[in-house]
Amino acid sequence: QVQLVESGGDLVQPGGSLRLSCAASGFTFSTYVMTWYRQAPGKGREQVAMITSDGRRKNYADSVKDRFTIWRDNFNNTVYLQMNSLKLEDTARYYCNAYGWRSYWGQGTQVTVSS
Fold this sequence. Notes:
By secondary structure, this protein is mainly beta.
């Protein structure tokens, strides 16, 4: 059974930090590209950060460059997203996606940035 379980979302003040985790199981994690997406209320889903299967290449949305960092642990089948200098506009539900032979989605974790 394939599972992607996101965690780490919380309510945080502007300028704060959070670390999201996405634990994967049920497929060969190390062969899949992993991507974090987010969706704010009333908006479409936005790609935030992507990392290749071997972790060598990463891409970030312009809106999060220099603030967010993605990395993965292929031994523990987990992908992470470190979010620093959070802004109000980072408020969204964050999802991880595994893309390879098939595409899998998690249920998401809520990040709320508010003073």
